[in-house]
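Format notes (please read before filing issues)

Several people have asked whether sequences and structure tokens are stored in separate files. They are not. Every record keeps both together, in the order shown below: the sequence lines, then the token lines. Line labels are part of the format and must not be stripped during preprocessing.
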Amino acid sequence: MMFPWILASAVWSAVLPAQPIYFPPPGETMEQQSRTTPPQAGFDPGVIGKLRGKAARWALWRWGRLIHVEGGFNHKQDVASLRKTWHAMTVGAAIQQRRIPSHGQKLSAWLPDLNAKDAESSWWHVITQSSGFDYPHDSFPAYRPGQMWTYSDKNPRRLCDALARVYGKKHHRDHYEEVLRAAYFDAIGMRGWEAGFSRQDDGIRLLLDLEDMGRLGLLALARGAWNGAQLIPRQFVEELETKRTSGMRVNYDGPDDGKIALDPKLFPEAPYGFMTWVNTAGDYYPGADPAWAWGSGSGGHYILWNRNNGVVFAAQGREEAQAPVARGIPHILEESLAGAVSVVRDIPYAHYSDRQLRLDLYLPAGKTESIPGVIVVRGGGWRQGDKQGFARIAEALAARGFAAASIEYRVLPEAKFPAAVHDTKVAVRWMRAEGKRYGIHPGRIGAIGGSAGGHLVALLATSAKIASLEGDGCNRGISSHVQAVVAMAPVVDFAALSRGTIEFLGSSREQAPELWALASPVTHLDAGSAPMLLMHSKTDRTVPYQQSLDMLARAKKAGVAADLVTLEEAPHAFWNSAQYFQETIDRAAAFFNSALVSPQGAARNFRFSQPIMQRRIIR
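Then the structure lines:
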């Protein structure tokens, strides 16, 4: 087993939805909550009725705002094995606080009584329940750490003992509540909770109410951050909520209270992260978003969250269902959110003789006026693709409150430069002239694109004054100026990209230097250019990272508000990867929210507090 990352610095900031996450102040009453309604939160009004009866007591939040409580909000109970997720989070807190170097450290550094193969177990092995502490047992051999997954009480017991020593205690019975308070419980405003023990001595038990459970779920949803402070490394949270058991054997009838109601034929590998159940493989909740993760304990105690849609659902006395669950709470919540976006397809927006270009317009539900608009321009090397290429991005932006138009545009071999530029400008003019029928504000229009699309939207940002790039199509005389641009892995300077012939331009630089300059967004930068957010991978092998670095430097020199989000070791089209998609949307939505929704001028002061995206693939 490899542990390729050790925390060097806290490089992640909180998820940034179109409306900021609400972090309740310390306390345990309704007064600390920000209340909202299902429609205001983007849910179908009937979602409460669909959830009613699914648990004795439950509460639903979206982006930290409380939508509904069923039963006692402050009814405190022992949440059984649900505690394990939050003990695992304490390991993350210890890493963040530099009390331990990484989850790859061996537990024997803190528990010297571990010997033989058990001394090889790391924090990672314990929080993935693959320590092997139970073996040999009956006919099972002495599995080494990382070989066998078992839901054993030895893991939380050893984990709490080790964490107690990390935080200066003798063992887990030595005022362990002080460990949790120092780790992160105090930092997220937890009040009224209790820590205790069970007769079987299976580690620290937690007595929580729905209010406490909501705070814990919100911490996971916010990627380990709370109100601007990073309490748990973001990458740790992302590992916690995704499957970590690939290649491990399973024993669902293990010793030390290790019996789990899963069929090894249906689940040959445990759907498990760091002491957390996960839907990464789509096997526990078939058809539901793989991003769902949850901690659970006997008696129906349950904290469910989804980083993609901002939902936290906490329950006590929840009805249990045999996995796989064909229609569970995740399915109900997703169905109730599906109505949050509507799509008007195949709207004609440009006409060239007998050629007609179309777009698909994704609209947020419940908004009918002053909607900020975004032109969505897919990549494809100016040669391939259609408006479905960035449909997922358009839909995600619409779910955040933007009217997103995913456009088709002319590509090779049909047309060379500047045809594609003309098309994107016509799309802006269409949205400005015709968007009012869909409630789009004509003065709040942005654009997002990747690769070739990144080049085209970068030109939208810089070339509003260049008449030769306006083209025909429709709505001549309407401005094609945009108020904000997100350009992902864009080509911005053809001269720095190549010295040969570029087919899109139809010539070499020597043959047509003016054309190459005209096609390069950096050529047109001036103080009137639109604010822009650049995103680029350092290891991009298609469009060099230097392109965005140069654009950033020149933009700042010209007095243009610009920022760069750098990805370490990501592919060229990182937005197509599940690993990077949500972070891409979070960053783009936050930028557009600042530029198109906030008071005028806010975008020019907009900066990500930590603009570096850093993610390693864990093998």
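For reference, the curators noted about this record: The chain has two domains: 30-336, 340-614. The longest strand covers residues 341-352.
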